[in-house]
Amino acid sequence: MLAGCLASCSQPQVAEGIVPAPRTGPIERRTQEPLRAEQADVAFIFVGGFAEPVLLQFREIYEKTPPLPCAGKQLRAYYAWESGTGNLLFHSTWKLQRDLRAFLALNPAADVVLVGHSYGGSAIMDALRGVADVPHEGRVLVLTVDPVSRRERSKPRERAPQVDYWVNAYCYPYRNVRDIAARLGGPWRECPAADVNLRFSALQRDAEGRRYAHVYPESLLMESPGGQEKSAYEHLLEACRKFNIGKKAE
Question: What is the pTM of this model?
């Protein structure tokens, strides 16, 4: 695994058209890409989970995922679940909240699309609740990938008030021994408040032949579970079209 991680650090796959372009150095990839306070129509924000600075799995998804197929200027951002503070005890999202406030103050009509894995899923809802007082006319779409939270810190499975559409993909039961962090935390699993819930079973295998697992977020994001026609990401793209993300009302 370490060799694979080092290889991914030295040869990241970066999709074209991402603004700003992700940093590609082995050290820089472990840092955040803050949301810029500049004019834009869409903010597309990724939030990684607990072991993200080591595994870089969600970072790779952030790098490979192309811009949303919608009108207007998009700004991309990437955060750690604790906002990169290194403070693992308090699960603070204050940096994400600060940057969202600055962005929305400049772009009150902009749309915001957030995708989070593991603790990053609960961090998204946490951050949105923290900026619920900010005037905002745009849409907010959320995609959580097997979200987890510390039960006493975040509010498990609760939907932030600004969210217009929520897609939740989760894995249950777990079978991978590396999913221990998710087990020790508070897996959200099915979320009654979500608009779409997609369940993946570890008894089934993904396109790579691996059992579905918390530690393989790309499979949970980009593949469809048995009996379903669409992946979580396809549901997100459908919601972007439905809500005219990036397009202003005439």
Answer: 0.92
